[in-house]
Specification:
- It is a single chain.
- This protein has about 500 residues and is of the alpha/beta class.
- The protein folds into two domains: about 240 residues, FAD/NAD(P)-binding domain (3-Layer(bba) Sandwich), CATH 3.50.50.60; about 190 residues.
- Helices cover about 30% and strands about 20% of the residues.
- It is built from 13 helices and 22 strands.
- The strands form six sheets. The protein has a five-stranded parallel sheet, covered by helices on one side.
- The longest helix has 20 residues.
- It starts with 10 loop residues before the first strand and ends with a strand.
- Bound molecules: ligand NA7.
- The site of ligand NA7 has 20 residues, from helix 4.
């Protein structure tokens, strides 16, 4: 029943990365303009602002990894970090996102006021915002993970994480160690090797690599796209279909796609690395796709060069002069690059998040089990949306596409509030359990449980990803199921009334 069609909420968005920016745009389209974004850095861009290491690029095709409403004449199949940063800054300007952002402040607390039915959001600069809704767009791979290797602090030379690249260090003539062999390492190592440096790559676990040459788009084609942007639509359709019909289906257990993926990565390794001993060192002992697939075409050629050294013996400790291996050998180094990934389960943390009846985030997640409904709603946290929460990502797919689907859902949920049908909306604990069971039920067929350690796994070794095809993700949020929601209406005199 429509009671007050004019209600417009106040919304606070945490983070001005690709998802937070999208939130501003989608909310404005829906007529919600009282939106404030809190961003700790001094510019928009999130991941693509922070990661500036040599070779940084997206490993999802650029026509797919962008907003559906803002195609761009990309320079190559996969955009570089710099190109994506420029793209996001362009979007922020064009869609007037920047004017909504308060830069240089970090959200330190989100406290739900049971009596008032609103959120109070505090920042490290002492601000307090009282709002109807909070959208946490804090990203998945945001907090660099330092390796827990003894002696790290004792290293005499410079040491830094790939997400905090030291552009001030002159690497000329330096012996560089790179710890880690994930997607980032596969991008940065070829750059360092091809620049002629002596590079020692410390591999704990080899990775399967899907060969994808990052071919540039010819200038004439880009000019055609610039002249008529709708000419880019078929390209988006093609790459989207490729990812969804091949990659995603291969990872969630479709046998044909899975067999093809296996044949491709194994065949590529055989063809690209001719030295049997090196090939053996680079061959994982777990199923293809179990760790997030590395998409790359430059690492194998680089690691075979004379100035590249693959170290596969376990690390004992780090010493002032270099890395001491368990075999006793010291690998002498002048600089150390930590390509050791991210704390992907941090989500909104660190911050104090307290929901209804004093319920803390740690009360839900304290045991390292991350739950949500539809990867965006959390029980006990009314009017709070966690973008790309537990239950995402979907294999090697575009998180921008996932965020678009989630925001459509969020805007429709806010419609309940705007029509005055409810003032407080949260998932029932049963909805969270049902979504968690739904995710677990799909994991058996997926590649993520095939005997590896990966950043997808929670404390129990259960992957926290969406193990079904893309269409299922879309379908799961296509309709609002009010049975999944606890909706509360505030009566005029201040009492609460559960619906
Ligand atoms: P990843 O994929 O988490 O890779 C981290 C790498 O660092 C991986 O090879 C780890 O080995 C290695 N690592 C982590 N800690 C240690 C210690 N203590 N000792 C030795 N090696 C270690 O992070 P990336 O930045 O490469 O990629 C993150 C995502 O960015 C990627 O999936 C894409 O979505 C884009 P392990 O495999 O755990 O043995």
């Amino acid at each position: 029943m429509t009671q007050n069609p004019q209600r417009t909420p106040s919304v606070l968005v945490i983070g001005a990365g690709a998802t937070g920016m999208l939130a501003v745009i989608r909310l404005r389209e829906a007529g919600i303009t009282n939106v404030t974004v809190i961003e700790k850095a001094d510019r928009v861009g999130g991941t693509w602002r922070d990661n500036t290491y040599p070779g940084v690029a997206c490993d999802i095709p650029s026509h797919h990894y962008c907003y559906s409403f803002e195609p761009a004449p990309w320079k190559a199949q996969c955009a570089t970090g710099a190109e994506l940063k420029d793209y996001l800054e362009h979007v922020a300007k064009k869609y007037r996102v920047t004017e909504r952002v308060r830069f240089g402040r970090t959200v330190t607390s989100c406290l739900w006021d049971d009596a008032g039915g609103r959120w109070t959001v505090g920042t490290d600069k002492g601000d307090h915002f009282v709002v109807d809704f909070v959208i946490a767009a804090t990203g998945i791979l945001h907090h660099p993970k330092m390796p827990d290797i003894p002696g790290l602090d004792s290293f005499a030379g410079p040491a830094w994480h790939t997400a905090q690249w030291r552009h001030d260090v002159d690497l000329q003539g330096q012996r560089i160690g790179v710890i880690g062999t994930g997607s980032t390492s596969h991008q940065v190592v070829p750059e360092l090797v091809n620049a002629g440096h002596q590079v020692h790559v410390f591999q704990r676990t080899p990775q399967w690599v899907f060969p994808f040459p990052n071919l540039p788009f010819p200038e004439w084609l880009r000019r055609r796209w610039i002249a008529k942007p709708e000419r880019m639509r078929p390209w988006k359709t093609f790459y989207k279909a490729f990812i969804e019909q091949f990659f995603v289906k291969a990872t969630v257990g479709h046998p044909v796609q899975n067999a093809l993926l296996n044949a491709t990565v194994k065949g590529y390794l055989r063809l690209a690395v001719r030295n049997r001993e090196l090939r053996q060192k680079l061959t994982p002992d777990y199923g293809v796709g179990c760790k997030r697939m590395v998409v790359n075409f430059t690492f194998y050629p680089a690691i075979q060069k004379a100035n590249a050294h693959l170290e596969t013996d376990a690390i004992e400790r780090i010493e002032p002069e270099g890395v001491r291996l368990k075999t006793g050998r010291l690998v002498p180094l002048d600089a150390l690059v930590l390509s050791t990934g991210f704390h992907n389960f941090n989500y909104v943390r660190p911050m104090t998040l307290v929901g209804r009846n004093g319920h803390r985030l740690e009360d839900s997640w304290g045991h390292g089990r991350y739950t949500s409904a539809h990867a965006v709603l959390m029980a006990h946290f009314p009017n709070f949306f966690l973008m790309l929460g537990p239950g995402t990502p979907i294999g090697n797919n575009s998180v921008i596409g996932m965020a678009e689907e989630q925001l459509d859902y969020v805007v429709r949920l806010m419609g309940i509030w705007r029509r005055g049908e409810a003032d407080e909306i949260e998932p029932t604990p049963q909805a969270v359990s049902a979504f968690t069971s739904y995710i677990k039920a799909g994991l058996g067929n997926s590649v993520w449980t095939r005997g590896c350690q990966s950043w997808y796994l929670d404390a129990d070794g259960v992957p926290v990803v969406f193990p079904y095809p893309w269409q299922d993700f879309v379908r799961s949020m296509a309709k609002i199921n009010t049975n999944e929601l606890t909706m509360v209406r505030r009566q005029k005199r201040g009492g609460l009334h559960a619906l």
